[in-house]
């Protein structure tokens, strides 16, 4: 019985920790594409400069999530009350960036499901 309770506790903790904040929405490619093409948005590529220079979505700004010192500083130039659209290579780094932006007080954060690899398919 103790083993079952312990296992259930661990699983509920893990599933709870994996949830996105309410301000973060993961969007399918078509919805993401429609949103960034029909609105004026803050579009951010959180990959490295090398990855960005090899190819990126038109009008994206590059802010590398792997450089924590400049990451916060560079995002401070964006409007926290306007939607921010994020992407990386596959979705992992942009997920991390989205959670960080949520903690910084950004109100609307959209993350491209599957990242740039999905975008170029």
Automatic annotation (TrEMBL):
Signal peptide limits: 1-18
InterPro entries named in the record: Rhodanese-like_dom (IPR001763), Rhodanese-like_dom_sf (IPR036873), Thiosulfate_ST/Rhodanese-like (IPR052367)
One Pfam family recorded for the sequence: Rhodanese
Domain of life: Bacteria
Key words of the record: Signal
Keyword Signal attributed: yes
Domain Rhodanese: start-end pairs: 37-121
CDD domains associated with the record: RHOD
UniProt keyword Signal, yes or no: yes
PANTHER family: RHODANESE-LIKE DOMAIN-CONTAINING PROTEIN 15, CHLOROPLASTIC
Protein name: Rhodanese-like domain-containing protein
């Amino acid at each position: 019985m103790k083993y079952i309770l312990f296992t259930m506790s661990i699983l509920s903790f893990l599933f709870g920790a994996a949830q996105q904040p309410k301000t973060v929405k993961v969007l399918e490619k078509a919805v993401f594409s429609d949103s960034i093409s029909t609105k004026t948005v803050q579009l951010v590529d959180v990959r490295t400069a090398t990855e960005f220079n090899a190819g990126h979505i038109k009008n994206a700004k590059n802010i590398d999530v792997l450089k924590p010192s400049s990451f916060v500083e560079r995002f401070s130039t964006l409007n926290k009350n306007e939607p921010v659209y994020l992407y990386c290579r596959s979705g992992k780094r942009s997920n991390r960036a989205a959670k960080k932006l949520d903690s910084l007080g950004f109100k609307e954060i959209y993350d491209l499901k599957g990242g740039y690899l999905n975008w170029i398919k």
